[in-house]
Structures are given as C-alpha cells and as structure tokens.
Amino acid sequence: MFNAIVIDKDDAGYRAGLREIDEAQLPEGDVTIDVAYSTLNYKDGLAITGKGPVVRKFPMVPGIDLAGRVVRSRDERYAEGNLVVLNGWGVGETHWGGLAQKAQLKGEWLVPLPEAFSSRQAMAIGTAGYTAMLCVMALERHGVSPDKGEIVVTGAAGGVGSAAITLLSKLGYTVAAVSGRPNEADYLRGLGAAEILDRSAFSEPGKPLARERWAGAVDVVGSHTLANVCASTKYRGVVTACGLAQGMDLPASVAPFILRGVTLVGIDSVMCPRPERLEAWERLVRDLDPAKLDVMTTEIGLSEVVATAGRLMAGGVRGRVIVDVNR
Ligand code: NDP
Question: Under CATH, which number does the domain 2-113+296-324 receive?
C-alpha cells in the first residue's frame, strides 16, 4: 500500500483527498518509481480544485511532475537505483501522477536526474522552472540577446515567473516583473528583477499598439495581459506565451505582428520532444542559481496538498511549492 492524492468524480461530485492505494492498482508502465518529491504547479491546482478540465480519467492521481528512484524497470535505459525526473506527457491528467509515494511510467517519458541537482532541487525547479527555461531558450533562438533591451515577465511572483526572472537576470538580461503583489517587490528584486510593474496596467483592454518597450517577454497570464505585452513589444521583438492565469482568450490585434514584425512563440512543456527537454535540464544546471532556488521554494507534505492547491488558485502562494510525498 502507498499514500496518494486521489481525485474522484462521480454522483457524489468532484473531490480530492489523501488515500491509501494498493500497488497492484498502479497503471501500466515499464518503470516503477519510489517518488521522493513532487510539486504543485498551476495545472495541479486546476486539477485538484476542479477549476479547470485537466483530469481526463477518474480516479486520477494528480501531479504533473516528480523526482524519484527507480525500483523496477523493463526499459533498458533505466536500472534499479537510478534517479529520474518526469515532467508532463499527460501524467497527472490521463496517467496517474507524482502526488503519490509510487508511480509507474513509460521509460521514454523520463529524464535522468542531472548530477548537479538533488531530487528536492529538481522539484524546486519542477515543470515551472523547466518551462521558464524553454521560454528563455526560445528567446535566444529568436535572437533576443541581453543587449537588445528589457524583458518583461508576467505572473512574476508565481512559479514560472520566479524561475524566468532568476534565469534571465543570471544571463545578463534586464528584467521588468509584472505582479499583482506589491508586497513581493523585495522578493522579486532579490530574484533579479530590475523593476516591478503593477499588473493592473496590463490586465484591462488596451490599444492595438502601445509605446515600444520590450525586446522580449515571458507571459504566463494570457488574455488582455498577453495582448498588451504584444502591443508594447519593440520592433522585431519576441513574446513567449506559456500560460493562462488571467484567461485562455487572446483579445489582441494583428498590429504588433504586421507593423512591428513581433514574433509570438508558443511554449509547451508537456509534449516537448526529449532532446529539447534534455537540453533544458542541462541549461538549468548551468544557468540557475541554486541559492535563488531556496528563496523561491516552500515545502509541504502530501497531507497539505489539497488545502495548498486552493491557496495557489487564489493567488496566495509565492514561487514554487514542493511536496515531500513521504510525509
Ligand atoms: P502560479 O500559480 O505559480 O503563478 C501564476 C501567477 O500568475 C500568479 O502568481 C500571479 O502572479 C499571476 N496571476 C494569477 N492570476 C492572475 C490574473 N487573474 N491576472 C493576472 N495575473 C494573474 O502558476 P505557474 O507559474 O505554475 O504557472 C503559470 C501559468 O503557466 C499557468 O497558466 C500554467 O498553466 C502555465 N504553464 C504552462 C506550461 C506549458 O507547458 N505551457 C507549463 C507550466 C505552466 P502575481 O501574483 O505576481 O501577479
């Protein structure tokens, strides 16, 4: 038997709770893992609270990422004792996920834990940090270097935002952080933000084109915020879009794209091909300051997950939440 968060949906409604599960019930998979840490991402918050249609099969163990130790493997790339990391691939949505003491997964979904990180650090990074890295890599790929100008990061005090600020500032970019939490200004400056902007300046309908300011952007918010970020991006600037914290809509005009040659780059961490994942994790080893990781991380146990998911959805959680699944 092992402990897991389980989401049910039936005549009694949608609910999540801590439960004991028989190992024989683990889903099909060629690698069995003793999970050490998982995390609470925005998507896990949506799944656990039922605020978004993330879970496609019930009962479901949520948790879109995990780090742990292989206990059994039919995949020749992994042997007992290997330390591994998982992000995405529909885990925690259609396949039982990381908010449990055990997981059974496809070997092709896993990446080896980088030697530089402990399982705990890998989960402090988690899907949020790996996605922030994918955004940074996309900015670089599209030619946005630090000398091109300022980068704006929205949803700054959240997981992806915090990691993006940390990475960009270490790489020499000047970062403006957009946040709805003025009381987190010192935290954001500590991560490397040069300036803090109130999110209310971005969240309402704006003009098709605004004053050109950003060389690049990491947007986790979507909706009017993304539209306003595009409208204020400089000629040939690049906007990476990965999130929907304000909304899934994009009430924008084509003006920034056809008059300023702005590029909008979509970022998906879930089905991202393995070579790019491995590159992102290598880059995280090189470009993420571990001391900053501690500053942005809160640790909880499995029994605190459901309550914390509610707080996350209400915007009351700063940075990253890692979950020690064994307490
Ligand atoms: P968090 O909850 O940690 O952070 C989200 C942040 O967005 C909040 O901290 C808040 O920042 C801001 N925010 C929340 N609500 C609103 C609102 N109504 N209007 C404007 N800003 C708001 O989530 P994550 O960082 O884990 O994820 C952020 C987004 O990125 C989510 O939408 C998530 O689904 C998406 N995501 C996508 C991935 C992909 O593969 N494409 C992978 C990972 C995440 P502040 O308090 O500073 O204002």
Answer: 3.90.180.10
